[in-house]
Each structure stands twice: as structure tokens, then as C-alpha cells.
Design goal:
With about 250 residues, this protein is α/β, with parallel strands linked by helices. It is about 45% helix and about 15% strand. The protein has 9 helices and 9 strands. The chain has helices at about 5-35, 70-80, 90-95, 100-105, 125-145, 160-170, 190-200, 215-230, 235-240; strands spanning about 45-50, 55-65, 85-90, 110-115, 150, 170-175, 205-210, 235, 245-250. Helix 6 links the parallel strand 5 and strand 6. Helix 2 packs parallel to helix 8 (about 215-230) and helix 7 packs parallel to helix 8 (about 215-230). The radius of gyration is 23 Å and the shape is globular.
Length: about 250
Amino acid sequence: MLWIINGKRLKNILLIIIAAFFAALILFVQRQETNVDVFTPIKAHGALSHVETNQKHLALTFDINWGDQQAPLILKALKEENVKATFFISGEWAERHPSLVRQMVRAGHEVESHGMRHEDYTQLDVQRLRSDILFGRESIYKTIGQHPEMIRPPYGKVNKDILKTAASLNQQVVLWSVNPRDETDPGSKVIVQRVLEKAGKGDIIKLHASDSAKGTDRALPLIIRELENRGFQFVTVKTLTADVQSKSKLMD
């Protein structure tokens, strides 16, 4: 049987084949990109405390290890001010308060690790240190279905073993550059004053959502509004490190 195809029809068929090929190629690339971990640790061995950036960006972070009274108030204040933050939570707290952890994620906040038992990492041998990091990470994963990619060691204490162990587990150690010591309950006015005196481009502000920080929720609106009036934008830590012109300040 002899098939006769005119030039116009052949051209249309070729165009359809080419279009289908490129559509399949685009779909393949998109699937590959979705499988790639977006966040990459800044440095194999180092603790992030500040990001040098031309953008007027800074990050609000909250440590939490115990209590369930202040966290809802913090979340409410952040929602009212339309600000996203990064929460460093212990694995034990995640297991005790899974609904609050899920509420953080639903609100668009980042949830990262604060270890499992909130022990001083500088007092642990490498095996116990590694176990605490892993148990904390898995407890958070069981709660929200996502592995944390950053860790703030309890009390902010670090040494070379801590940095090396965290890096081997693909955990970026994150500290801070502004600390108003709100966990000592100095009062909301003092918290506001301490933050506003020091906060600037690329800063990571350390606050608490544990029940010891009783004035933090009242300080938040004043901090946020004043810094926004100064032209600053609050972003999560991952967004801060993703600034195109950023150069992260690390403590080795």
C-alpha cells in the first residue's frame, strides 16, 4: 500500500512531534528540580550568626523547649503582623505539643531543630551528641513530615566537635547576632529597646517562645512595626541566606 502525504501535512506532524518532545523535556526537568533539596548548608563547618546582604532583610527566630502558654500568643502576634519567622524547637517539645508545631507550619513559619533534650552539647561526647541531634530531627519529622535542616544548639554553646558532627548530619548550625535576653523576663519595653538598638541588615534576632519569656508577645508588634517603618522586611532564616548578594558571616 502506498501512502501519500502532502508537504503541509508532513510539516504539521513534525511540529506536533517537536512540541511533544519539548513538553516532555520541560516536565522531566521540573520533576528533577522538585527532588533537589533547595537548602544547602552555607559551609561544611561553621555556625551562621549573620548574613551580610544589601537587602534590608532580617530574621526573627524563636527558641522553644517547654511550656504551651506563650507559643500561641507568639503565633497570634506574628499572624496579626503578617510576619514569617523561624522556630527552633526541641524534639521533646515537638512530641509534647504536636498540634502547635503543625500550626507553625500551616502558618508558613520554618520549623528547625533545637536538639532533643535541650542538653549542653559541650558536655556531651560525640556519640551522645550525634544521638541527640538525630533523635531531635526524627521527632520533628514524625510531627510534621519534614526533616529540619538547621539546628541551634541548646544555650548557643558550640565547639569544633559540635560543628563537625552537625555538618556530617547535613545540619546548618544557626546562632544569632541580636539577643535581647527575653527569657530573663526583663519586660516588654526593655526587649523592644534592646532589639531596636542593634537590629540591622542581615541580622538574626534570637527570641523565645517558651513560657519563661512572658513579655515577648507584647514586644513583638512594637519591634516589627518600628523596623518595618525603617524599611526592613522580616524573612525566614532560609530566605535570608538565599539573598542573591549575601555573604554569610560564620563562626568557625
